[in-house]
Design goal:
This protein has about 270 residues and is an alpha/beta fold. It has 7 helices and 11 strands. The protein has one domain: Alpha/Beta hydrolase fold, catalytic domain (Rossmann fold), CATH 3.40.50.1820. Strand 10, helix 7 and strand 11 form a beta-alpha-beta unit.
Length: about 270
Amino acid sequence: MNGARSEGGEYFVAADGETPLPLHVLYPAQQPRAALLLFHGGGWRRGRPTMLVPHARKLADAGILTASAGYRLVGAGAATPADCLADAAQADRAFRTIAERAGLDNIAIGGGSAGAQLALALAMPPGGQESHGYTGLVLFNPAVDQCCNRGLVASLVRRSLRLTPEGARAASPLHHVRGGMPPSLMFHGTHDRLVPIELARRFQASMEAAGNDCELVEFAGARHGFFLDRREGNPALERSIELIKLLLLVRAVGSPTEARTVTGKDRE
């Protein structure tokens, strides 16, 4: 490939065998050096894959084949987050085929909030099922605990999604941490009221206790969704992109045992 990056509007079939779902693929101008599949957030009920297309464009410009995938939302084709996860697995298969055609034999995976939960569920399936296998995990304020977080927002989420105790635990990556995971990079705002920073810190500690490389980058004062694109620009997004490039292209993201805190203009 020569010249500028290119964008492809691909589709794949949902786990119900009939619903077409979008897969926005951003192709680097040159031979890609890595591949990353992303899932948008929105509490499993809202959101769209275009939310992460700005991130995908920036990563494609750095040589990373990147895609942002859709999935059926709860109340709009999906009954529970388990159906969203089944669609995420379908997206994984479709993107692996694209990556293989580009000469890449494996992919990284990630997402924001509920989308990060889907990515983690593919990497660390509940019940000890075999992981799909990835080269890295990229997580923006991931929803890691739907069952034991006693906060008001978590309770409302469980109620709105009609999660049973078993379903809530199955959708909680914090309770399915295992060893042998790929390097992970997690971004989180310290003033996140939907997914409190304490959950991210607990998840990082659990990952490291299992022998995994997991870096938590804290954005001081930032709230939920701080990483999304803005018309006026977003330094937090730019900072995150630089660290993702280090993870996927250089694998030199710093010490996995310490959390970084980004302050000042980087948190805006």
